[in-house]
Automatic annotation (TrEMBL):
This is Transcriptional regulator, TetR family. Residues 33-52 bind DNA. It comes from the Bacteria. It comes from Paracoccus seriniphilus. Residues 10-70 form the HTH tetR-type domain. SUPFAM superfamilies: Homeodomain-like, Tetracyclin repressor-like, C-terminal domain. InterPro entries: Homeodomain-like_sf, HTH-type_TetR-like_transc_reg, HTH_TetR, KstR2_TetR_C, Tet_transcr_reg_TetR-rel_C_sf. GO terms for molecular function: DNA-binding transcription factor activity; transcription cis-regulatory region binding. Keywords: DNA-binding, Transcription, Transcription regulation. Gene3D superfamilies: Tetracycline Repressor, domain 2.
Amino acid sequence: MARTHGSRAEITGPLIRDEARRLFARNGYAAVSMRQIAAAVGVQAGALYAYTPDKQALLHDLLQSHMKELLAAWRDDPSADPLTRLERFVRFHIDFSLDHADAVFLSYMELRNLTPENFRNIAELRGRYEDALDQILQAGAEAGVMHMMDRKLTTLAMIAMLTGVINWYREGGRLDRDRIGDIYWGLARGAVGAN
């Protein structure tokens, strides 16, 4: 009997997270109620509280797990030349963003709905990811192959540019992912004044 309950919990918890992510991304965090999430999952609203204390905790959990997954997935090779590292970052960020479009959208659009403590937590994780790119740009500047007026601003602008792909990309559209990666790599080279 306990095994059945565990199996149900293992299914219901991820379903709650998936539906909350989908609904928050489509309608906005403020417009979605716990009752709507419960209805989408097919459980009573009260059942959600066995999985999350409240809607704020659910949003924070979604953003935190996304950032942790992003940080765990990125693999830099500091021994490679800076331009190779930057190209890998560009292509990685585009692919990861397109594979997790709803989570990426939430990570940018719903930060304003976090409590100050939850915001600080997500900002720290985002800072770690920005630092990963900043280290590449620093290495490029030190090697004389990248030339930027302001490295920090270039880091932020590049991440925003790469993330923006989720707003317009459609599977089966005019450009496939490889071609988008090629074009954005050219844009990134220009942004860092690459030789």
